[in-house]
Design brief:
By secondary structure, this protein is mainly α. It contains 5 helices and 2 strands; from the N terminus they run αααββαα. The longest helix has 16 residues. The N and C termini lie far apart (62 Å). The mean pLDDT is 87.
Length: 85
Amino acid sequence: DLIDEFRNSHLEEMRAIGKTLVKWKSEIKVSFIKIDGRRISNGPIESTNNKIKTIIKTSNGIRKFKRFRNRVLYSINKDIPIQNK
């Protein structure tokens, strides 16, 4: 099998690749699973986290958590009602 060829190579770099493949084998296999014809991705979550970080950077400090929360929720999903209390 290919992983064994990497692990048994005389080149240190190839052995390192073999070790990495063994260590991450299950994660690599899961990355090819498709649900409803699409591969699973954490891209949407990373995008949301990036939007929140951008809001934090541009807000010049956060004094009221509820205001910050409402701003984040409105920026990410305009359908969520804003809480006044």
